Q: What sequence folds into this?
């Protein structure tokens, strides 16, 4: 097993149940292996493969697809897509995983591409698609949230069950779902990259969330400044911002606070003085504290 394959295997183990449990260990290995190796992969005409309408990922960058298409023209498709027999079209197939490769193969002018065909029900299709996208970090924040909601509403999954399927903590899933309570316009801000999930979480439940969101974008506030703005309940002006705090924290410290907040789903504050200081993590429920403790103990 080469280094790349080892890394892929380790990535799957880190996703809780992962593809190995949803597909079966051998199929999961096949789905990640070069096309010459997988058992059961076959060439299927691209015209017979249909997009999955419930695919969690909605946004595909044109530059990203074009780059992959160039690679496919030169080297071919190195990793088969995963499909199932199309439920409503005999003789055709529905994509389960690998839409980016399918799109790029069409752009590259291929008439057929390697695919693994599996009999899967609707729940398995959605779970596998979510796990693959989460594993590759392909899903946007709102896409991820909508995927969790679909699993719960369509198939009766609890937050705990969703967390187990995708290899995330229950608080992470809960925080993702909370974003869907925000106005659609704010969700679009997050989907378009105009603000982060950390910014958006600070606005959840606020009666003037949309007004504050626009102020956050216009002022280019970081997450900590957004939280302060929300506590006041009104847009802050430059004259009311403490100048000492602005100059006391270096940009990289503020960026680190925001990154940690994104990873943990909790408010994080760093006070650094010459390489020494305090790290403060704020939780609002005992469940969040339990999850944080479990992470720290696993690391130990």
A:
């Amino acid at each position: 097993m080469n280094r790349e394959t080892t890394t892929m295997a380790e990535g799957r183990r880190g996703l809780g149940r992962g593809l190995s449990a949803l597909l079966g260990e051998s199929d999961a290995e096949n789905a990640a292996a070069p096309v010459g190796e997988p058992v059961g992969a076959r060439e299927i005409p691209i015209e017979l493969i249909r997009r999955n309408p419930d695919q969690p990922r909605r946004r595909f960058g044109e530059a990203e697809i074009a780059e992959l298409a160039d690679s496919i023209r030169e080297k071919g498709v190195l990793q088969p897509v995963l499909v199932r027999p199309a439920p409503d079209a005999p003789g055709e197939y529905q994509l389960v995983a690998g839409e980016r490769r399918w799109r790029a193969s069409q752009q590259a002018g291929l008439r057929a591409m390697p695919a693994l065909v599996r009999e899967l029900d609707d729940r398995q299709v959605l779970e596998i698609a979510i796990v693959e996208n989460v594993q590759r970090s392909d899903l946007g924040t709102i896409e991820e949230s909508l995927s969790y909601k679909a699993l719960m509403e369509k198939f009766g999954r609890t937050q705990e069950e969703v967390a187990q399927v995708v290899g995330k903590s229950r608080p992470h899933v809960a925080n993702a779902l909370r974003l869907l309570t925000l106005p659609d316009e704010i969700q679009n801000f997050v989907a378009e990259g105009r603000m982060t999930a950390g910014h958006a979480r600070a606005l959840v439940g606020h009666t003037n969330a949309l007004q504050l969101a626009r102020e956050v974008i216009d002022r280019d506030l970081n997450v900590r400044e957004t939280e302060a703005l929300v506590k006041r309940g009104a847009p802050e002006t430059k004259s009311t911002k403490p100048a000492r705090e602005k100059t006391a924290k270096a940009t990289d410290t503020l960026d680190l606070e925001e990154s940690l907040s994104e990873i943990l789903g909790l408010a994080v504050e760093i006070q650094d003085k010459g390489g020494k200081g305090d790290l403060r993590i704020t939780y609002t429920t005992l469940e969040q504290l339990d999850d944080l403790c479990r992470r720290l103990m696993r690391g130990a």
